[in-house]
Structures are given as C-alpha cells and as structure tokens.
Amino acid sequence: MGSSSRVMSMSPGCSTGSISSRTAGHLLFSWFGEFITILGGTLGQLSVPIACSVYFYLRKERFSAAVALFWLGQNFVNVSRYVKDAQAMDMPIVSLGDGDSIHDWNYLLLKLNVLRHDQAIGNTVLGLGLLIMLLSVLLGSYYSVDRDEDAS
Predict the structure, then answer these.
(1) Nearest-angstrom CA–CA distance, 26 and 150
(2) What is the pLDDT of residues 88-102, one digit of tens each?
C-alpha cells in the first residue's frame, strides 16, 4: 500500500473465521498494489469456503462440500451488505492496526467509477449469495439420501 497510512477494513457482521480469512487476504494480496490489496480482503473471505468445498468434493465428501458451499453463500451475503454501504459508509469499520481506516468497497467502487451503483452491485452480490445458499441446501439434501455405492 505504499507509504499510505491507510488501514484496510473488514465488514462488520463477519464471523471470526471470515474476519481472519479477510485479514489474510489483505496481507496475501499486498504484493499486487493498493487496489488488489484492498480487494484481497473480499477475495480472502471468499476463497476459504471455496477451498473447503473443493477439498471435500475431491474427497467425495459431497454433503460436506455442500455445507462449505452454504458458508460461501453466507460470505457473499455479508459482502453484499458491505458493498451496499459503499456510498453511505454508515457501517462501523473493523480495522487492522493504527491509522486511518478506509471502507474497502467505497474505495473499490470509486476507483472503478461505479460508486453510484453500489446498491445494484450489492443486490447482485446478495442474489448470488442467496442462489449459492439455495443450491447448497438442494445439494446437501440430495447427498444426504442413502444411495448405492455404484451411483456415486
């Protein structure tokens, strides 16, 4: 982030695990410039449930993969609240370290010149999260039914 004293922020309402992965995302992506560092929080928050879902799927633990997919959907819902707050910046910001904290999604949408569309973008992220959660419930229900070994 250069010589800036800005501090990345985290969306309130995240679980401890999501905040940890969000923080790790900021740190892991800090090598790629300010924009990607700030986006890295959300990327980190979403990548952990994706990795868990893929891990369980590859181990043929399909129900567990569906649970992790639900977690991913929840994270999209959390991110949507943060995106929809980009203009108003009413949500309290949880920040790392000292210095001035910034609202990640205010910064990102402003840089992309789409800040005025924060509600529409946030609603799209919300819809995606709800769709993922619905899909995970359907998959979890499907995989919770006993099937012959030959069918799996």
Answers:
(1) 44
(2) 999 887 766 656 678
